[in-house]
Amino acid sequence: MNANMQDMKDVVYSSRVRLARNVRGLPFPHRLHGEEEIYKMMQKVKEACDKVVATDFYQMRGFDPIEAQVLVEKHLVSPQLTQECPYGVAFVSKDETISVMLNEEDHIRQQCIVEGMGLDRAYESLSQIDREIAKTLPIAYSPEWGYLTACPTNLGAAMRASAMVFLPALTMTGVINSFIRKYQENGITTRGVYGEGSQAEGYLYQISNQAAIGMSEREILDRMNLVVSKLVEAERIARQNIAKHEGIKLKDKIMRAYGTMLYAYKMSSQELMELSALVKLGVCLQYLDCDLSKLNRLIVESQPATLCKLTGKNLNVAERDVARASIVRKKLN
Amino acid sequence: MNANMQDMKDVVYSSRVRLARNVRGLPFPHRLHGEEEIYKMMQKVKEACDKVVATDFYQMRGFDPIEAQVLVEKHLVSPQLTQECPYGVAFVSKDETISVMLNEEDHIRQQCIVEGMGLDRAYESLSQIDREIAKTLPIAYSPEWGYLTACPTNLGAAMRASAMVFLPALTMTGVINSFIRKYQENGITTRGVYGEGSQAEGYLYQISNQAAIGMSEREILDRMNLVVSKLVEAERIARQNIAKHEGIKLKDKIMRAYGTMLYAYKMSSQELMELSALVKLGVCLQYLDCDLSKLNRLIVESQPATLCKLTGKNLNVAERDVARASIVRKKLN
After folding, report:
1. Chain B neighbours among A 30-69 (CB < 8 Å)?
2. What is the ipTM of this complex?
3. Which residues of chain A from 264 to 293 reach within 8 Å of chain B, CB to CB?
4. Nearest neighbour of A252 by CB, restricted to B251, B262, B264
5. Which of A246, B51, B138, B144 could form a disulfide with B24 if both were Cys (CB 3.0 to 4.6 A apart)?
6. What are the Cα distances from residue A212, in Å, to A149, A192, A285, B41?
7. If DSSP states are collapsed to H, E and C, what string results for B201-238?
8. Taking a C-beta distance cutoff of 8 angstroms, is the pair B119, B17 a contact?
9. Which residue of A has its CA nearest to B267?
10. Which tens digit of pLDDT belongs to each residue from B220-267?
11. How far is B243 from chain A (nearest CA, A)?
12. By the CB < 8 Å criterion, does A260 face chain B?
């Protein structure tokens, strides 16, 4: 990883690596009903985590639904874990970069999310925990198939590497579609993060490796690093082009979005997504000065459950819109 | 005039008094073609003005059209004077409160505009000039009809007193229409300042006395003072009511308008009118702090000809929208 890789926050929102592991001799979670065995596995994973990083522990059974939803909104656990997994458990590192889910689709799912472009960094962090877990628990591994997983699409490295990328210019110009098609043919999935299909809300896309069979972790990371850095390059060029082409019209649109964020008294999450995407583009085009990470965090901080937790109230939609606008004003002013 | 009268800037944008005078023995302007007599009258009026206030002198013949339009946009001369009066002349006081037009519909039309509620003040200022003019020129006056004017509707006191009032709450609630009907029956005209009929753009209305026959100047002023102060009272109550009723919805709309004014990079005059009206309402409801006079001046300062004069360029519509937004940002930040 070179210095240039680290410096892609103008395009790469975050990088995520996920590893799926299962315990040899134990039925997969959807067929697992032995409380004692589950408790034993939980203890072993806890011991392994403790050796690497300080974590908080969350048990899904009887868990407060607001608190559970907050973890989902922060992308620390899957919605599935909170809704469909009675034996679901999560360990979350204090800095909220690493989380380990137990008894979701697989026995153990480890995940690391870091800001900006950092797949290698994320993978290295996870590897430490993964090694500790392998020391305390027998992991299901076949020399022929690699890591065994509940769903065959995850077999092999059982690793998914993904980057959340911000592609306003490639979206506005429509160029993104040819990238999506090309990647699809090469086992890379691109999807809009909040919208459906390629209709990306806030111009955010998640790029991830589709299958891991027959590829090593290193090969997956290298391929993803290459794909993302090409996207970054294309997006940067496209931005300069639309800035030149659209001129004052685009600047007006962006600056109005910024003014609205600074002064509005109610705002839906959909509108916040749209406005902050424009403002982020404005930062990248140097129309205005604002911290990109702060803008990205605003999206998470103003999700429904996170808002309720923050205000300590069970807010309805209209009340959330007011609370959301208030947070946006405070954080940006 | 009491202290309360002076303190109506939250509703009364400006007050204007206009006096029409004609020189005895001289044909009315539309029938006047003697250059020497016109020059003589001009000299006499200049002498009279000089005794009271320092003025700038503008002759319409051969006058730069941009400069002429600037005077119109500032409401210092009528469009008619600049377009249809070959012998048209204007004296404008340095502080731009007083203007005297020669050879418009009447030989001499004197006008004084002051900020806020100040019809009495405006009338007193004009009276000084009017007395000086009457000393140097024989004014056409009939004991039976009063001052003689080219159009019979102006006969009598030949005075029009008007107030430009800002009535957002009475407009939003529709209550303004009953006021307009009632005033109509009592010889008071109410019309939208920039829009057609009662469709007031920017919630601005001009209230003026319709006929002056049979009424003294004092009676006209008293009636207008009464009408305006009642409107002010009604508008203030209506504002408190809509603020209570509309709550956060109105505040959101107002604050977004303010944010847009502070950050937009292009803006039509129509949009500026709408946004600044909302912002002015916001100032009156104490949602934000901004100088009302400054907001009112923005409307004039960003009119087409005034913009061209300011930038020293013959701007097209799109360029004016950019220049207008730039002025708005600079003045408000």
Report:
1. none
2. 0.85
3. 264-266
4. B264
5. B138
6. 12, 22, 37, 97
7. HHHEEEEEECCCCCCCHHHHHHHHHHHHHHHHHHHHHH
8. yes
9. A252
10. 999 999 999 999 999 999 999 999 998 899 999 999 999 999 999 999
11. 14
12. yes
Spell out which residues of chain A touch residue B258, defining contact as CB-CB under 8 Å.
Answer: 259, 263
Q: What is the pLDDT along chain B (333 residues), one digit of tens a residue?
A: 344 445 799 999 999 999 999 999 888 888 877 778 888 888 999 999 999 999 999 999 889 999 999 999 999 999 999 998 888 999 999 999 999 999 999 999 999 999 999 999 999 999 999 999 999 999 999 998 899 999 888 888 899 999 999 999 999 998 998 888 888 888 888 887 654 444 567 899 999 998 767 889 999 999 999 999 999 999 999 999 999 998 899 999 999 999 999 999 999 998 999 999 999 999 999 999 999 989 988 988 889 999 999 888 989 999 999 999 999 999 998
- Give the amino acid at B204: L
- Amino acid at position A330, single letter: K
Quick check: A259 contacting B, CB < 8 Å? yes
- Using the structure block, give the residue that is written with the tokens 């989380």: A99
Cross-sheet strand order for the sheet of A108-115: A55-59, A89-93, A98-102, A108-115, A12-21, A159-166, A204-209, A188-192
Chain B: residue nearest A279 by CA? B263
CA separation for the pair B107, B149 (Å, rounded):
9
